[in-house]
Design brief:
The protein is an alpha+beta fold and 118 residues long. The protein has one domain: Ferrous iron transport protein A (FeoA) (SH3 type barrels). It is 17% helix and 29% strand. The chain is built from 3 helices and 7 strands, in the order E-H-E-E-H-E-E-E-H-E. The longest helix is centred in the middle third of the chain and has 9 residues.
Length: 118
């Protein structure tokens, strides 16, 4: 079972508190997952990651810590319920240089239905 990182309180005005609660992907251990919140990469590197499926709002799970840092890019299949964060068969694994994983920040995914916990 996947373990999630701590979830910050979310509200329309809480982008700063959410950003401070996000952690570097490289700080997660194998089996932990999160939603990509932001990166500290330049536009070209961020565009390359996005082309591989690692994009803001996308869910990733750490498969292996090391060099390379292997993550599963988890996606909803078209047959799954819209808004679901449950990973389906539409996923892939990619290897990232650890230095790249240090520049990708993730937060805990929202629960089913998309509402933040109280």
């Amino acid at each position: 079972m996947a373990h999630f990182i701590p979830h910050p309180a979310r509200s329309p005005d809480s982008s700063e508190s959410t950003a401070s609660a996000a952690r570097a992907l490289s700080g997660l251990t194998a089996g932990q997952s999160g939603v990509v919140h932001h990166t500290t990469l330049d536009a070209d590197d961020e565009a390359l990651l996005e082309a591989m499926g690692v994009r803001r709002g996308g869910m990733v799970m750490v498969c292996r810590v090391g060099e390379p840092f292997i993550v599963a890019v988890l996606a909803r299949c078209s047959s799954e319920r819209p808004g679901s964060t449950t990973p389906g068969a539409c996923s892939c694994r990619i290897g990232l240089a650890r230095s790249l994983a240090e520049c990708i920040f993730v937060a805990e995914p929202l629960p089913e239905g998309g509402n933040a916990p109280v």
